[in-house]
Amino acid sequence: MGLVKFIWEGVNDMTGLPIYIERKILNYNREIIEDRTANVVTEKALTVFLNHNELSTIICSPIGLKELIVGFLLSEGLIGQRSDIKDIRCDEDEGLLWIETTHPEIRTDSFLRRHIASCCGKGRAGLYFINDARQLQPVLSDWQLGVKKIVSLMSELEDRSDLFRLTGGVHSASLADESGILVRYEDIGRHNAVDKVLGYSLLNEIPSSNKCLLLSGRIASEILIKAVRGNIPIILSRAAPTDLTLELAEEFNVCVVGFIRGEKLNIYTHPEKIIFD
């Protein structure tokens, strides 16, 4: 079920858009100056129309654009399942995407993500995080994962992070289980990468209560909320969580494991979900 690799001579084979470019640079290394080339990731602005109303513009990598928006709407609580989606159309060249839902009366007048930069999420005050949290229900899952498998999954994520090795300019996110990585995306924004994974999973109706979300970057509170919306019981990352992330994880039955480096890792919440095999 693994996601098809998108990199082929620097072009996203689903849209034909370049995902990185080669650029001439001047390199300085210990007093030696040389003309070289470097691979640089591309950014694209994608404007989204929900039920014929302009919703938001997202800065992203030109990969998995439909999955990005589906995951984004799931993360915002605007859809909840595959049957909520009536139609999706995307003009990759113009950077436009239209999505229609079976509930066209969805209100977005309180929606605060009018323009979303690649480097951050909503950038909202604590009040709005509280409002998000009040809409959530705890993840319904007692699924457990072995510590050796956690180490193996992180190694697999790093091994398969092709675009990062080429450019050093993207984040990785994956959905995985005991068999390995099932879905993987890289994007200039870590929130975008997670949304793409969630969107792919929803579109393909992949059960999530026995899966983990695997990340290369920091576990922010917004990413925790995304995992809860997706009913994912375990989050794994090479990096650290924030304190608000851990408060929410305790409340919503999510196990957070961070600083997975080789044979070392930190279990921050719900350690009962980890098997020390």
Describe the structure.
It is a single chain. This protein has 277 residues and is of the alpha/beta class. It has seven helices and 17 strands. It has a domain at 145-275: Cytidine Deaminase, domain 2. It has helices at 65-75, 126-134, 147-159, 162-167, 190-203, 221-229, 243-251; strands at residues 7-8, 11-12, 20-29, 32-41, 44-50, 53-60, 85-91, 96-101, 115-116, 145-146, 171-177, 180-187, 212-215, 234-237, 255-261, 264-267, 274-275. The strands form five sheets. It has a six-stranded mixed beta sheet, sandwiched between helices. The protein has a five-stranded mixed beta sheet with strand order 7-8-5-6-9, covered by helices on one side. The radius of gyration is 19 Å and the shape is flat. Mean pLDDT is 87; it is low at 1-11, 110-114 and 122-128.
Overall CATH class of the domain at 145-275: Alpha Beta
Span of the ends, CA to CA: 26 Å
How many beta-strand runs? 17
Low-confidence stretches: 1-11, 110-114, 122-128
Q: How many distinct helices? A: 7
